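Hi support team,

I submitted a single chain yesterday and got back a structure, but I'm not sure I'm reading the token output correctly. Could someone confirm the output below corresponds to the sequence I sent? I've pasted both exactly as they appear in my results page.

Thanks,
R.
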Amino acid sequence: MTGDVWLPIPPEEIEGLPEGPRYLFWDGGDDGEQPFPGDPAECAVYVVPYMKRWPVRAHPLTRLTNVRVIQTLTAGVDDMTARLSDIAPGVRLCNARGVHETSTAELALTLTLAALRGIPGFVRAQQQERWEGGFHPSLADKSVLIVGYGAIGAAIEDRLAPFELARLARVARSRRTTARGLVHPITDVLSLLPEADVVILCTPLTEATRGLVDAGFLARMKDGALLVNVARGPVVDTGALLAELERGRITAALDVTDPEPLPPGHPLWQAPGVLISPHVGGPSSAFLPRARRLLVDQLTRWVNQEPLRNVILTTGPETAGANGR
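Hi R., thanks for writing in. Yes, this is the structure output for that exact sequence:
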């Protein structure tokens, strides 16, 4: 296939890229004002810069008039799907399935264990040179509910397997059976919540999951349960969560929030029983090796005109903006 490929990783740092395309480096810079590496109209594959603000990532979109593939380096593509009018028709949008499962699952387990075993309190006590012992909940013998049983959900279950759980339940968009057992449909989630000691959210953000964890959802959680969110902030109604945290009825460990980044002075910072990490599920030392492998595989498929992996959707005429794109 012909056309330029824009990469947010210098091409000389990606071993095994197939011959044929012209590979150009563009990561947008810090403010999106980094000059384009070539004519946007000649870009056939746009690999979206990772961990950049939306204005940076979106900066070239309306100028990529002949782009055929947009490859994100994130598992979620909700920011792209919310702005399809900026993307030309006939473009395949692909996510980074296979890149973030390991790192995100590690963090989900880390947040769960840290929240249960009281690690934030130990850190505060250490800073004040206080020795504070006591009993804390163990993950062993707990019932865990995974909401969003895709690749990341399965990776989280992999890491929970040695912890001697009493029960693990899985929820996804639709009912299915895996080698590990039943995956419940999302319509069953409210009936499963009262039995769960730990609820781990790893569902993609869609119109169906936006605000899924509302006051009714939280009210169904058992007293003392832990909510872990490694999905997207808007999956949870922040106001409803704050109300439950202030009551002290449940606790939470959040890698994502709504709004995000969480501004200074927001009540969630000081809410009782909450542990917050700044959306670091994906960015770890595991990212770059997996991202490089994904790009080599996808671009080899592109050059050889083979089916691409991880195609979320292909844009159609109905997504074009008023300018006919």
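A quick pointer for reading it: Residues 101-117 form the longest helix (17 residues). Let us know if anything else looks off.

Best,
Support desk
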